Amino acid sequence: MNSELKPLSAIGEFDLIQRYFHNLTAQQGVELGIGDDAAVVSFEANSQSRLVVATDSLVADIHFPLCSAAYDIARRSLCVNLSDLAAMGAIPRWFTLALNLPQHLAVDEWLAGFSRGLGEIANDHNCALIGGDVSRGNLALTITIIGQVPADEMLTRGGAKPGDHLYVTGTLGDGAAALWLMSAESNDPMDLRLREHFYAPIPRIKEGIVLRDLATACIDISDGLLSDLAHICLKSSVGAEINLSRLPVHSYLKTNFANFFLEWALSGGDDYELCFTVPSHRVTEIDRLIRQGQIDATPIGKITAGDDIALVSESGRTLNDKHFGKYRGYTHFA
Questions:
Q1: HEC profile for the chain?
Q2: Most buried in the list 106, 155, 286, 312, measured by CB within 10 Å?
Q3: Structural domains present in the chain
């Protein structure tokens, strides 16, 4: 540790908040931001909008490597929370941050990078930090993010119907590939595209807004395609069929990780793309938006009756749940 940098015990909690986070609160709708017992935000009277609230916790060595730079930890933490709003078709407005900092941390240096990363993502999406807490402990953080969506236009997991077409945004498997390359098992150099995807996955806010009037169900892919698609199936009381040859996987993964890319695409997690369903009579419209570049998405299958998820191989062979147990997504308590 640089002896000129102050440890956590040498700087007060309120001085810390004032120095590194107070400037992130100046956004529209914030009547009283950081510095009181609670924040006060304004909302339009008689508004036809609804508030959308999501919370995610990130813990060192579980959700990001302990050696990660503070700048990258901040970007990742806010991006993955924004992804939850994207899945609901919501526009970000405000967020709170609870941050645990180890005693030995060089606070000035670490928080300077963290605040810079947090500010970049917050400014990109016009959302304001309005409060939270800082305490001592193992490195971990929790963000509660608040968004806005027009009444009766929010996306949920519960509206898919048999016959709907199944889509995903972006490419799959990148998050798992990045995490593997960061691990001790890998001797390969880190691909810069994968590194950026892991620490700053693109929150699909724009796509979520476009999908409000098109999709019947939507979820963000955090624990793996199969695991998260299963939530749509459960909430909608449907099954699904995935065509493996249509999964959007970047050529880098196919070339360099031929034995792993399919498993990563199906169950690797950390992709933070959207998985959504579209009724047959709207497919022409969604495909036109894809061609025009207004939404980055790929059709990968369809929604079926029943409650199974089936995988159709390139040869046409159909595998059901019992054949692909290894392709289950991440779960904290398994």
A1: CCCCCCEHHHCCHHHHHHHHCHHHCCCCCEEECECECCCEECCCCCCCEEEEEEEEEEEECCCECCCCCHHHHHHHHHHHHHHHHHHCCCEEEEEEEEEEECCCCEHHHHHHHHHHHHHHHHHHCCCEEEEEEEEECCCEEEEEEEEEEECCCCCCCCCCCCCCEEEEECCCCHHHHHHHHHCCCCCCCCCHHHHHHHHCCCCCHHHHHHHCCCCCEEEEECCCHHHHHHHHHHHHCCEEEEEHHHCCCCHHHHHHCCCCHHHHHHHCCCCCEEEEEECHHHHHHHHHHHHCCCCCEEEEEEEECCCCEEEECCCCCEECHHHCHHHCCCCCCC
A2: 155
A3: 8-150 (3.30.1330.10), 165-327 (3.90.650.10)
